[in-house]
Amino acid sequence: MSGAISKIVGGALLLASVASAAQAGGLERGGYNWDLLFEPGRFASEAGAIYVMPERRIKNAVDTNPRDGLGSNGIGGGATSVDETPDYTVPRFGVKVGLTDDADCLASYAEPWGVHTDPGYDWVGANQNIETKIRSHDYGLTCSYRFDVGKGQLRAIGGVSYQEVSGFKRRLVLGPAIIQGALGPAAAGFDGSGLLDLEADGVGWRVGAAYEIPEYAFRASLIYNAEIDLGQINGTVDLTEIPGVMAGALRNPFVGRITDVYGTATMPQSVQFNWQTGIAPDWLAFGTVKWVDWSVLEVIAFCPTSTKSLGSCGPSSPFRLTSLDLMFQDGWTVSAGLGHKFNDQWSASAQLSWDRGTSTGLTTQTDTYLLSSGVAYAPNKNVELRVGGAVGMLTSGSYGPTPCPGNQTCGTDVSYDFGDDLVTALSISGKVKF
Asked: Strands, DSSP E only, in 191-330?
């Protein structure tokens, strides 16, 4: 059965990647993928990209205190409904080499974490967010060793990753109308926004095992991916869009200048169980269960670097200059699908998946339901091309005051709702093997 089923597996793996990118809980964007490690033969390389189109729209936004002058027009005004999330692309690349008959290694590049929200200046919640973007780069090496056990083979898996994370957040700090009222014509060119810019890196590891029975196209794998401690996150807070002459009146010595800041954060650990099995000639069933420890990211505080010797930087620190308020809960993803081989060149797969939202009230990342499908074409035994797509629903929810560390309340700047929204995705990839 393995010869008849092998062409289906590639399409099934494509769907897992599409689902991961389109359901994006927490800061997840492309997630981790080591499926190329299981490709038969001495050499295999794969490259692909997924284009995701979320249609999340904020509705019924209310500035918590319009009199604070932080609305988009400086007096609490602006739109109450805006599109939040732009389209995005998730690339991936990997090369697998069989070192011996039983030992394989996979070198991979991925962008596992990321987020991009861009509601803009012209809404009543500009003091909460104008634009936020997080990016990541993961360079991984994962190896395995197989040995016979019963009717199949047991595979021990281990690997490491070097990861880079960077990003920014821009929000309104002081309404332009207030600046105009204080300085008159001298206020021209100042929009009242502040910008947090950050970057960090770290190293992580993974370990796991898989059991395979090629005769039945059966494989079950369990992989633990350790958390990645980013250590010190370095960055800057740029308040040069507020005139420096207002620092005294605002009692804020950071106004009008760029300040070096630092913070700490850890990217989450995860556990992923994948399975597949032939169920009839030319048919394959497959699925995934994944847990991600997103609750490790709550409130990430940033303090001036000049205060480092005076005390620690945390959510309750007296030195906190700004923060990223996330308050995620753990994420769960469950999926199952079927694949079918039509002939030696063509196969197709379909998958249903559910992702538990990670939001506790400070993001729009609620539950997602997704239907994915894909087609694989193999003109010969060395080349395989895949295309796929997905359509799903981002469930409704709300943003507003949420308890956070230090007996504080986050999300007090604006409140809003969002309904059940559409998300779609397209994917293309190619594989060369011999």
From this structure: 193-213, 218-225, 228-238, 258-267, 270-280, 283-292, 299-304, 322-325
Distances (CA, A) of 122 to 71, 83, 133, 342, 399: 8, 11, 18, 52, 18
Q: Kindly report the CA angle at 299 between 297 and 303, in degrees rounded to 5? A: 125
Q: Is 170 helix (H, G, I), strand (E, B) or coil?
A: strand
Query: 298-315, pLDDT tens digit by residue?
Result: 999 999 999 999 999 999
| C-alpha–C-alpha distance, residues 11 and 397, integer Å | 33
- 95-135: pLDDT as tens digits: 999 999 999 999 999 999 999 999 999 999 999 999 999 99
Buried b (16+ CB within 10 A) or exposed e, 328-356: bbbbbbebebbbbbeeeeebbbbbbbbbb
Tokens 């109308």 correspond to 177
Distances (CA, A) of 326 to 24, 27, 425: 14, 10, 25
What are the pLDDT digits (tens) for 214-256? 989 999 999 999 999 999 999 999 999 999 999 998 899 999 9
Residue 20, H or E segment: helix 2-23
Q: What is the pLDDT of residue 182?
A: 86
Contact predicate 50/90, CB 8 Å = yes
> 237's torsion region: left (phi>0), alpha (psi -120 to 50) or beta?
beta
User: Do 168 and 132 contact (CB within 8 A), yes or no?
Assistant: yes
| Cα distance between residue 372 and residue 359, in whole Å | 24
Tokens of 96: 């697998």
Element containing residue 416 per DSSP (H, E): strand 414-418
Distance CA 135, CA 289 (A): 25
pLDDT of 399 reads 97
- Of all helices (H) and strands (E), which one includes residue 215? none
- Say which residues have a Cβ less than 8 Å from residue 380's Cβ, sequence separation at least 6: none
Beta-strand relationship, 383-394 and 368-380 = antiparallel
Coil, strand or helix at 404: strand
Q: Using CA atoms, how far apart are residues 233 and 261, in angstroms rounded to an integer? A: 8
